[in-house]
Amino acid sequence: MAQDSNKRKKPNILITGTPGTGKTTTSSALAEATQLRHINIGDLVKEKNLHDGWDEEFDCHIINEDLVCDELEDIMEEGGNIVDYHGCDFFPQRWFDRVVVLQTDNSVLYDRLNKRGYSQNKISNNIECEIFQVLLEEAKESYAEDIVVALRSDSIEDISRNVATLTDWVRGWQPAS
After folding, report:
1. C-alpha angle 60/112/153, rounded to 5°?
2. 172 is in an annotated binding site
3. Do the annotations mark residue 46 as ligand-binding?
């Protein structure tokens, strides 16, 4: 595990959280601040057809996790990536040096998802995930606990502070020796 990160000159970061917590906004701003590559898994799945069709109930693609991992393997080994996705348990542990779980207050989250035109079913499902901290638990079970960090993401100020904190972390990052 450690030897993979030796080869990397730059760290890999996973930014995860319930839909609507600000993953893409945070990832884009962080990529700009650090010159790391932003990989939005949802966009990648659509562009490269890395899915097994459409889920009518949740109104989204059914991603093919194996295809996604195969697609990313080489660039993840290079390092210097910010991966933006609402799931995290299928990515290889060796890929990431930092796993960020964004968390948002339920009323803020409700408004964001409602503005996106999500169905009530999809909104309820995502709010439930947030209440039960499903993604934080998933991250803690999937990665070494010392690389997992939960960050509040309710406002533009929160996002700016998170980007500043993560930019400092990237600047101080050293490959494992």
Report:
1. 105
2. no
3. no
Cα 123 off chain centre by:
19
The structure's pTM equals: 0.94
Tell me the Ramachandran region of residue 83: left when phi exceeds 0, alpha when psi lies from -120 to 50, beta otherwise: beta
Per-residue pLDDT tens over the stretch 76-94: 999 999 999 999 999 999 9
pLDDT for the residue 138 = 96
Phi-psi sector, 104: left (phi>0), alpha (psi -120 to 50), beta? beta
Provide mean pLDDT across the span 146-162: 98
Residues constituting the chain = 177
The verdict on whether residue 23 carries a ligand-binding annotation is: yes
As a CATH number, domain 12-170 is: 3.40.50.300
Is 25 annotated in a binding site? The answer is: yes
What is the rounded distance in angstroms from the CA atom of residue 16 to the CA atom of residue 88? 7
How much is the pLDDT for 57?
Answer: 83
Tell me whether residue 22 is annotated as binding.
yes
